[in-house]
Here is the input.
Amino acid sequence: MNETTESPAVKLTGLTKSFGANRVVQPLDLEIGRNEFFSILGPSGCGKTTLMRMITGFESPSGGSVELDGKNVDGVPTKSRDLNMLFQSYALFPHLSVYENVAFELRVRRTPKREIDGRVREALDLVRLGAYAERKPAELSGGQRQRVALARAVVGRPAVVLLDEPLGALDQKLRKEMQFELKRMQREVGITFIYVTHDQEEALTMSDRIAVMSEGRVLQVASPTEIYDAPASRFVATFIGSCNVLDGVVDAQGRTVVVPGVGELPASVPPDARPGTGVTLAIRPERVRMTASGTGTPPVGAVAGTLVERVFLGDEWTFHVRLASDAVLTVSVPSGEEAAALGAIPNGGSVVLSWLAEAARVLPAEEVAA
Amino acid sequence: MERVTSWIARLVFVFLYLPIAALIVYSFNSSEVSYRFDGLSFRWYAELFRDQMLLESLRTSAIVGVIAALLATVIGFLTAFGLVRFRVKGRGFFLGAILIPLIVPEIVLGVALLTVFSTVGVPTGLFTLVLGHVVITLPLATLVLMGAMSSLDPSLSEAATDLGASPWMTFRRVLFPLLRPSILAAFMLSFTTSFSNIVISTFTSGVGTTTLPLRIYSSLKTGLTPELNALGTILVVLTLGVILIVGVSQMRRILAGPRP
Here is the structure.
């Protein structure tokens, strides 16, 4: 191996892009490791596609630089970058067979003829489409086309494969299957995957790390569990999964959060939080415990509320509870005896909510809810 | 009501194809006059192949048609590529400028061309004929190719680039094979437009470069001879032949299943 073994697969330094006066990607730094399954997650229009296109070289950055495998590639054309892209539309060549689609890169890069067949077969076997080599893309299902596109992207053994919302065009069931398939294939080929998506579930199930983007900024880069359990901002908390948010201030002792109209609520206030600062309290619905009023002693820091709606979702119940401040919290309870008992509480019934202090994250207040 | 419409449809068909049928039937008529059928004969075909003037004009039309259609297709391809692929400044202006010959009356174009040629001092002949025909066929070829190109997924050429293909390889391996039917269509449309043109040819042809339509038109004065029926029949058969060949090969491509 050469001396660049230790360098990250992709390193972005101060990378930014503007279209006219409109800055779609704010200057950002990011390192993506070798063999990492890295997701860039954000709502449409957050700049994630532009970011990806700058890595591929389809867009030239307005500032900053891109390093691939330790080498600066600013000004290097797309065709000479050691990466491939899997397009949202798959972009299979409709006039070529599956075999020739996969062989395209090898032929274009003048790989020795005797090598081509073996490598194409290997790539097709990886995506389990060996039997479809002679078909045309139009004769394949959406999921199969997707696999051909993947085989075509990995056949040249690039260091990095970028995937642009590749599951967007598939139906729900196929999407779930492909999530596992993609992860399996990524492990098998040992290539860095950069996966761009707006679907938080895809990002959570497949990624080693996730970068959450909004309005051209990377808000948080962390593992899926960390992103979910310890979101760094209100946007991340509400964009990934569902989350209850309440605005309040840190109390005088710096131990709990006072929410106007509700009172003191248990929260994991960071030690450096100054009393009186405005904060956002974020609590996942599954971390909230709900009991009917008058059943036993309510735990410390419990909040009274009124049940306004119950929704049965099959594997869980979702309850909407209005607090004294008129804020509505969501509580989810997995189906079972407890949920069934709670489901028997009529709309308008009084309930008591409680949670552990560590379940309530304290986040910096944001002026505008994202 | 349905019976009425179905009869109207039949009448329209008769009206469309009766002249062509009559043309073919009368080309085998032995009579000198076209309104009386005297009996079967190949006489007019024989006369046609002895009519040097007519054959000469057929040759001129074919040469002009092929060259003008080739030029229109090549220039049209490049124009369409530029306009579809790049958001260039003044795109609307360019598009408008190319399509103007479709809107301006041909007679005006013809006069304008002749004015320019005589001002610059270019003698009318094959060269001016071709230029004139490119002016009227270029918009057609451009429109056909623009339509085809904008229906192509732009990520196809990005994918080719991403996989290491140079612009030329992208064209040769991806764009050209996918656009081939449309390129052929643009060429054919340009050729037939040029081949049947009278107005522009009137102004741009010179001595010795009379096109076939001009020759036929001028023979109206002396009276149409039945040999024109023979010529017409040959052209109809040729056209049908080309359509069949192109059509069959297209159908085969569409119907062809996976190769064994």
Remarks:
- Chain B touches chain A at residues 153, 155-156, 158-166, 169, 173-174, 177-178, 258-260 (CB under 8 Å).
- Chain B has a mean pLDDT of 87.
